[in-house]
Write a structure and sequence with these properties.
With 264 residues, the chain is an alpha+beta fold. It is built from twelve helices and seven strands. The strands form two sheets. A four-stranded antiparallel β-sheet has the order 2-5-4-3, covered by helices on one side. Helix 5 runs antiparallel to helix 11.
Length: 264
């Protein structure tokens, strides 16, 4: 289904250093996003299902004088979409003192200099973060990225963003109707159904997960079939955008920290 609807505009004022161009560069190499460059330079085009709804929306983002300007195409609540975009780009976090960290920690300072204005870029929702985990299980990342993009093309809505058609990942109710899909083997469709049901029930609400004690949030996520501790942390960090959790279950992270700080 194609959507080309009323355009609404919103603004987000970053608190602390931020570069939309850095976010665009990150997404261009982030396989799960399958992000293609917008036709207009320095614009970021996103299509996703708005939090707490079945409505697919398109968003065109640009940066002017340090403010992020968003143009929204779709019928969802503008306030919901604005908050969702802020979470995706980690603009819901006050980073005013982040530069000070780099002044006192040379490792952080070098990273800040190498990637100026870059903040963590999250999945469009906890729902999409969970879907990625289930889709990508036991296959290569490149295969999973192609499969997720094909699901968006064949099952999701098409959103027209000032002339460019962008595909959104299918909404939870659409996923519940899925009986089979090439590339989804084993119990993946069953697990995706449970993920969709949990999303509809509000169990994956990002604000709710971030408000819970982290151990409780992770335990709740692990009640979903196919989601273990590693996957639960992924959803909490990259879906809900929890800014204050450090995973030790991703072995490459402690190793990178040890190398950077010359630890044994």
């Amino acid at each position: 289904m194609a959507h080309s609807t009323l355009k609404q505009q919103f603004e987000i004022a970053p608190r602390g250093p931020f570069s939309l161009a850095a976010s665009i560069d990150f997404l261009s190499g982030f396989a799960p996003a399958a992000q293609e460059a917008a036709e207009t330079a320095n614009h970021l085009h996103l299509a996703f299902v708005a939090d707490g709804s079945e409505q697919s929306v398109g968003v065109c983002l640009r940066e002017e004088d340090g403010t992020v300007i968003g143009e929204m195409y779709g019928e969802a609540s503008k306030d919901v979409v604005r908050k969702q975009v802020a979470r995706i780009l980690s603009l819901d976090i006050d980073g005013s003192d982040f530069s000070t960290v780099g002044e006192h920690d040379p490792v952080v300072g070098k990273l800040q200099a190498r990637y100026p204005g870059l903040r963590p870029v999250c999945f469009y929702s906890t729902y999409e973060a969970g879907a990625w985990i289930l889709i990508s299980h036991r296959i290569r990342i490149t295969q999973a990225a192609r499969l997720k993009a094909r699901m968006a093309r064949e099952l999701g809505d098409i959103v027209d963003i000032h002339g460019e058609q962008v595909h959104a990942f299918p909404a939870p109710t659409r996923l519940l109707q899925l009986e089979n899909f090439p590339g989804l083997f084993g119990r993946k469709i069953e697990y995706l159904h449970r993920l969709a049901e949990a999303t509809i029930a509000g169990q994956l609400d990002a604000a709710r997960l971030r408000s819970l004690p982290q151990e409780e949030a992770l335990e709740a996520l692990q009640q979903l079939p196919g989601i273990g501790i590693f996957s639960a942390e992924h959803i909490l960090l990259r879906g809900a955008g929890d800014p204050d959790y450090l995973t030790l279950n991703e072995p490459r992270l402690p190793r990178a920290v040890a190398l950077s700080y010359h630890l044994k």
